[in-house]
Design brief:
Order of helices and strands: EHHHHHE
Number of domains: 1
Number of helices: 5
Mean pLDDT: 92
C-alpha cells in the first residue's frame, strides 16, 4: 500500500518508479488521476510488479513516499504454527 500525498511526490514517483516523467504531466493532479484511475492503477501495478518487495520498499523509502506492507497470519511474529 502506498500514498502519494502531494504533486511533488507524484513527480518523483513517476520519474523513479514508473520511469515515465511524461505520465506526471499527463495526470498532474489528483482529479485527473481519479478520472483515469484504471490507466493510472494499471501503470502503477505494472511498474511495481517488476520490482521485488525489497526493491520497491527501498525505492519508496528513498523517495520519502508513504508506504506500508501487509503480512498474512503466518508472517505475524506472535503467532506460532
Amino acid at each position: 500500500m502506498l500514498s502519494i500525498q502531494n504533486e511533488r511526490e507524484w513527480q518523483r514517483f513517476c520519474v523513479e518508479i514508473l520511469v515515465a516523467a511524461d505520465f506526471a504531466e499527463q495526470y498532474p493532479d489528483n482529479s485527473s488521476r481519479l478520472a483515469n484511475r484504471s490507466v493510472v492503477d494499471g501503470s502503477v501495478e505494472t511498474a511495481l510488479g517488476k520490482l521485488s518487495h525489497t526493491e520497491a520498499s527501498a525505492k519508496l523509502k528513498k523517495l520519502e513516499i508513504a508506504y506500508s506492507t501487509l503480512n498474512d497470519v503466518r508472517g505475524f511474529p506472535v503467532i506460532r504454527f
